[in-house]
């Protein structure tokens, strides 16, 4: 536990000391909020309202897209935080850890917890934009989504750690992860509903773990009890797998299992890469 906490604390200190990284980490989410939330909200709301048979239903696109933006921040921060593993290898710090009595599993868990904590903090800071966007999420809704944000960040950081243990250069890591991350964002329902998609693309959506993370965040943040079934369907909050609607508990369980599997494979890969 001491080794895990030490690695966890080190990653947190590195993040808060790096002012450029702290500032730059919010550039992409705010840019997406301006483009999708501000520029495209009218168009998206008109399109969605046109597909609704119930003329009294309303669709707030900014309310729909904000949890997706937060999930996108968690994804990018968690995955790219693993790049510190490659930097530690180049600076020789990783060799010092490897010769210590800390196990490879502890190193992987410490890195995952550090990345998940940083990602969660960034997501919480984005909550400060809620009043300026004219949104009205309940306080309890925001509080109950925070633990899941940490779990989601841990799972995604495990994905980044797996790639960082295989790839030996920061340039290669950035290029590989960028190719992986962007489709995961756009095919997750984070920025627009992913219902009524082609069959082959629907398969990708259903096997994308980010899809379930985004869905959980939307269900926890948005009070669906006040929404009509038509609006819920338009927001894509009813994910079906093999003709059966997936519950929020099953989605959380899937993310937790996904995190555990990634810890396992990242540890194995980490052992081989640093043997």
TrEMBL record:
Its main location: membrane. InterPro entries: ABC2_TM (IPR013525), ABC2_TM_bact-type (IPR047817), ABC_2_transport (IPR000412), Nod_factor_ABC_transporter (IPR051784). It is found in: Cell membrane; Membrane. GO terms for cellular component: ATP-binding cassette (ABC) transporter complex. It is a multi-pass membrane protein. It holds the Pfam family ABC2_membrane. GO terms for molecular function: ABC-type transporter activity. Keywords: Cell membrane, Membrane, Transmembrane, Transmembrane helix, Transport. Residues 20-273 form the ABC transmembrane type-2 domain. The chain crosses the membrane at residues 20-44, 64-86, 107-133, 145-167, 179-201, 252-270. Belongs to the ABC-2 integral membrane protein family. This is Transport permease protein. It comes from Bacillus selenitireducens (strain ATCC 700615 / DSM 15326 / MLS10).
